[in-house]
Amino acid sequence: MDDYLVINEANWDARAATHVAAGYGIPELLADPEALSGVVRFDLPLLGRLDGLDVVHLQCHLGTDTLSLARLGARSVVGVDLSGESLRHARDLAGRGGASIDYVRSDVYSAPDALAGRTFDLVYTGIGALCWLPSVSRWAEVVSQVLRPGGRLFIRECHPMLSTLVVAPISAAASERETHGWLTAPGELAPVVDYPYFEQDEPLEWNDAISYYGDLPVTNPRCLEWPHGLGEIVSAVLDAGLTLTALREHDSVPWNALPGLMTADATGEHRLQVRPERLAASYTLIATQPLR
User: Per the database record, which ranges form the Methyltransferase domain (predicted)?
Assistant: First the structure.
């Protein structure tokens, strides 16, 4: 396999420029010193205030969510990301947004060394992060290393089931609409399982010219991703010694993951327009580091 870090770093360096050019919620964060990103606003009921906590945000990208964590009262915030271009924009945003945030360039697996042994009260991972990692077990081990006794892991992530789906028309042969009238009719579009659900040794390779945000071309479109099943993620967290305290599934995700089938609400969350109860689109997992 080619060096996935080199490939994905180039991809995210390119995405950084297109995301900033498209806005990415940055003007809104700068216009209001109390504004939060849409992702963190969604998380807030389960995340809560962060007053007095030391926080690390793994895979922070442009720092829109990182700035939002600082605005929730954290004593200190560190953002970690592979992409130097993303961090350049993140530092600029923090400065313009009046927040003191330390940004560290590192891949996730090297984060404990890059952070020089620092530990934190909260490890936060925003949505769309785990798919860039070959091993979810190694990720959970990193979380455990940088989390203080009594500290908390908080992650909202794209549901593994959503990541298996493509949009395709239902064939007449596959339809049971005659006996179950509420099912999708033949010829209509529906989410159909086609991509792997469980973690694989070999990555999925993508060359999408357009990113998930905005409509500008990405100059380095090649990237590598890995699926991770929900059971694999939960097991990795438990095997790393953490205690699972919450696992919630949601019917929405903050981007149009299934074009033609999803509709956005006023907060930017997308869910199936018809019968959204069919699909868990994302989940929130919370775990704690036991007191030693």
Answer: 55-151
